[in-house]
Amino acid sequence: MSILQPQLLFGKLEAPPASTASLLSLAPQQLTEVIANVIEKGSGPGLTDWLQVGITVVANLVLGYVAWKSARSSEESAEAARKSADIASTEQRPRFIVKLMQFKVVGKRKDGTLECSVFFRLNNHGATTAEITQVRHAHAISRTFPEEPIYDYVPEYRRGLAEALGIFGVVTDTSENHSLEYGFQVSPEEAKGIESGSLKLWISGCLCYRDYLDEDWVKTYVGILPFLQRQLIIDREVRLVRPPIKVAKHEATRRGVVDQQGSLISTRTKR
User: Fold this and answer.
1) pLDDT tens across 186-220, in order?
2) 239 pLDDT higher than 90
3) 99, 4, 105: which is closest to 45 by C-alpha?
4) H helix runs in 111-242, sequence order
5) 10 exposed, middle or buried (CB, 10 Å; 0-12, 13-18, 19+)?
6) Other CB atoms within 10 A of residue 247 CB
7) What Cα–Cα distance (Å) separates residue 48 from each residue in 20, 38, 158, 254?
8) Helices vs strands, H then E, count in the chain
């Protein structure tokens, strides 16, 4: 791109005046250099010259704004297309709902330790089947729910249990129930705290599965022993209830997996 010579732009021109189209081809920095050279030589630009320079600057600003607006519109269109694709695929994904969490004291040891179990029933309420890849549970006996639940850890030496957690071929069809059971122990001191109301019994779990696109998902859920039914009586079945709102964030379906230590790892890409 050639730069117009100052002597042809300002002063007494021996050649025809430069057209606006030629000036439009100049970048603002080039125009600044031309004007600076002319002023330095002592020849001042006329009104027509300044008008043409102004038109050039305004035209460059307009072109820049149009380019920015076009780029922004493209980004918005891409984001809208991504959201539409997510909505379309979401409608076809499996979706698990917890229908039942039932607690029961199944026995008592000589030292007063209680053997307890929780029965879960989840239903695939989505549009397609789900391949269940792993199931993990945990419990907490405390005044408040842990900030982040750590699901039961599977030691290396318990290879049989580790293999059972990752078994192949567990598929749940649409509208089909999937039943689970979790066993744990409550010490005499913890039992006294639960019955007195100073401690609460929290049960949390996660169901790991893959959808029809082979994407990994984790359904997490939490239940709490009702305060009015906190007496730990053998063979009495008690339905757990939903926790307070602060704990509700742990009842969710997220893209991700659960590692061997029991921590939830999200695989969703942030945008």
Assistant:
1) 999 999 999 999 999 999 998 999 998 889 999 99
2) yes
3) 4
4) 159-165, 188-196
5) buried
6) 18
7) 11, 15, 89, 66
8) 6, 10
Output phi, psi for 216, to 5 deg: -90, 135
Place of tokens 């959201």: 83
Task: Give the tens place of pLDDT for each residue, 214-233.
Answer: 899 999 999 999 999 999 99
CB 253 within 8 A of CB 211: no
What residues form DSSP beta bridges with 101? 120
pLDDT tens track for 76-89? 777 777 776 666 66
**Token output for 259:** 């590692």
∠ CA 148-150-155, rounded to 5°:
165
Angle at 229 between CA 186 and CA 200, to 5 degrees: 45
Place of tokens 């998902």: 217
Q: What is the largest CA-CA distance in the chain?
A: 115
pLDDT band at 159 (very low <50, low <70, confident <90, very high): very low
How much is the pTM? 0.63
The residue among 22, 6, 18, 24 whose CA lies nearest residue 48 is 18
Segment (H or E) for 71: helix 47-90
CB within 8 Å of 216: residues ≥ 6 apart? 133, 208, 209, 210, 255, 256, 257, 267
> Higher confidence at residue 202 or residue 17?
202
